Each structure stands twice: as structure tokens, then as C-alpha cells.
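To close the section, here is one more complete example, presented without commentary so you can practise reading it yourself. The ligand is LLP.
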Amino acid sequence: MNYVSAEVTTRNEFYGNKNPEQLIQEYGSPLYVYNERIFRSRCRDMKNLIKYKNFKVQFSAKANSNLSLLKIAREEGLNVDAMSPGEIYLELKAGFKPEQIFFVCNNVSADEMKFAIDSKVNISVDSLSQLDLLGKINRGGKVAVRFNSGIGAGHSEKVVTAGKNTKFGVDAKLVPEVKKILKKYDLKLIGINQHIGSLFMEPTPYVESVKSLLSIAENFEDLEFIDMGGGFGIPYHKQTGEDRLDIKLLGEQLDEIIEAWTKKYGKEITIKIEPGRYIPAESSVLLGTVYAVKFNGERKYVGTDIGFNVLARPVMYNSHHDVEIYRKDSEAQANIEEVTLVGNICESGDIIAKNRKLPEMREGDIIGILDAGAYGYAMSSNYNSRLRPAEILIKEDGTEIVIRRRDTLEDLLRNF
Ligand code: LLP
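Output:
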């Protein structure tokens, strides 16, 4: 196998004992390949973010809820958040104890809330309506409230979850109403939380939002925890040398603020973060195959089997993913040309990379879409009745195991 463009995975020794061609031959194309070493190292980065002793990392499983990866996160000592009863269910199956699961819900039914209460997990609500509903069905229980700290951040307006234009969180002005409802139902407020949005690359917005959240916390005397949320970005433009988020600087700034605040509050309560993307994103490459190369008008299209049913991010958010190219049986060569890399779904918007300068690709080439581990498989679907790919894990010893089998045609009939 010849590598036309494979600097990132070569540097990381990403594929273990096999090469992309062998993996595709064995497990089919497309294929999500994960690297356990990288996944574990990102768990550890987050665990070491701050020095404060009562610090806990909750992996936000919406980014990737593969059971095997959840188990690894648990082995690494992480807790988890959940967005739905389905995530609670999977997390319990992955061996998390109820007290390690935080249900950060939004607009849920009484039945869904009951599911969380019966599962004995902690619950965060993010509106007065939902606080009232929880009070009705769990009088005298515990609750956390998600506040909108007023500062949002994110790579797309679709994923900014605090500030003025978002459905999330309780406005800080409503603290008196929150207190009234807590009293009405004898609820104990155990924590407050926030999530400002997804993917920041500079510490400032997060740090500012934490200051704001901590000042909201001063309204409440008996908190057991404060959850500062996720959003930690990863460099998607690795091939052009994008810098990483400076987590050392971020950690130092957070430690400083937290230390000063806990002195003021009088207690060293638990401080949590809720990273999703940061943990699995860089641990996966999505492999696919080039099946057609053609000109339509002026534009050159490279057609692959990576439709937006397999990876939705480029279509949904115009997100950039670096692309590597691996060639099977002829010489690697690297004429750079501008192409539009597309999938096999029956929509013209099914584009992985538009007008991207890439080494020339040919039918039969294997491509690797980098940094596909967060919101990749998690957002995949059976659109066009396509089969979702398998997921495999390259273990630390270089051997691989299947951590989710590829869909079969029978799976398409499962609910009929
Ligand atoms: N906590 C809450 C309450 C959240 O809503 C989210 C993400 C997270 C934590 C984790 O955020 P992260 O650390 O992953 O940025 N599908 C989009 C991202 C959506 C994020 C939704 N909420 C994407 O592919 O970019």
C-alpha cells in the first residue's frame, strides 16, 4: 500500500499492525477506525485539566456512545452525562453507577424524567417549566439547574448554547423564581451547570462564562457541585498546522478563579467539566473508498462511499475535516488539484469537502477522513436505506477488535 498523503496517521502510528487497505478488506468500506491509545490520552488530558482536588470529568456521551469506548472512559475514571433515556441506558450497560451519570436534559416528558429518577441518576433541568414538572413527580428530591451564563461560544451558530440566541438554560435573572419552585416542592438544589457551546479554541469565553456561573452560584448556599460544561475544541486543520487549544493555560486560569471562589464560598465543593468532542474526536479516522472521478462542467468530483448518512458534520455545519489518501497498487504520486469530494447519497448537498486542494485521487483509492470520532457515528443514519459502517478499535498492542458490527440488510427490517 502506498500512502499518497498520510502524515497525521503515520506520525500517530494510527493503524496499528495493519494498513487501511487490509482493514477495509476485512471489515468493509466505509469503516470507523478508533485508536485506543489516543482515546485514553485525551481522557487523561481532561482529568489533568485543573489541579483543584475535588475535580471530576463527565464525558458527554452524545459525542460518541459506543459501548466499548464508554467502558474505556469508565476505566479511565471518568463519569458521564446523558441527554436522553437511551444514553442513561447505555451508560448503565457500560458499567457506570447511577451516581456517576448526570442527566442534562432539555424539554423532556414526565415519563423520561421518571425514567431518570427510577434509574437514580442526578438530573439537571433547564427551564422553570421542567423544574416545576420535576417537583410534581419527585417532591422532596434532588435537582440541578442549568443556567445561561450569558456567554456563548461555538464553531457554528447551531451549536452555541448560551447567550442571547439559544433555547438552553435558565436566565440568571430568574434565580428568585427558581428558589420559589424549589421551596414549593421541597426540592434540594445540589448543583448548577452550564454548557456554553461546542468547540472553542481560545480559553477566554470559557473562563469568562465560568466567572459568570460562579457568581450565579453565590445565590445558593448548599451546592454540592458546579458543572462548567464542555466545548473544548480540537484542531481540525492539522495538515496546515493548526495549534491545539492551550489546555495548560486554560487550566491555570480556571484553577486561579476556582481557588478564589471556594474561599469566598467557604467550601471546596465538586467542580466538574463535561467534554464531549475532545475525548473521542481525534481517536478516529473514517475510512472510505473512491469509486468515481469525473468532471461536471468545470468542477472535478471525486465520488466516494462516505455519504452524509455516515458523516453528517460537513453538510450540517460546513465543518472541515482533513483528508488523507492511501493508494492500493500503483505508485503514490501527488499532483495537487482542486476537487469536490462527495458521497453516494441522492442529494447534491452530499459533500464532504468542497473545492478542496488535494492530491489527485483515482478510482480504488482509500481515503481517511480525520478527526471523525466525535459526532461521527453518533450522528449517522440509515438514510437511503444505507447500512451504517462497522467500528473497530486498534488496541494499545496494535491488534484490532470490532466494537460495533456493520449493519446488515436484516437490520433494515428490524422494526417491521
Ligand atoms: N454538555 C452539554 C449539555 C451539551 O449539550 C454538549 C454538546 C456537551 C456537553 C459537549 O460538548 P463538546 O465538548 O462536545 O463541544 N454535533 C455538533 C456538536 C453538538 C454539541 C451539542 N452539545 C458537531 O458535530 O460539531
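Once you have examined the C-alpha cells, check your reading against these statements. The two ends are 43 Å apart (CA to CA). Residues 247-265 form the longest helix (19 residues).
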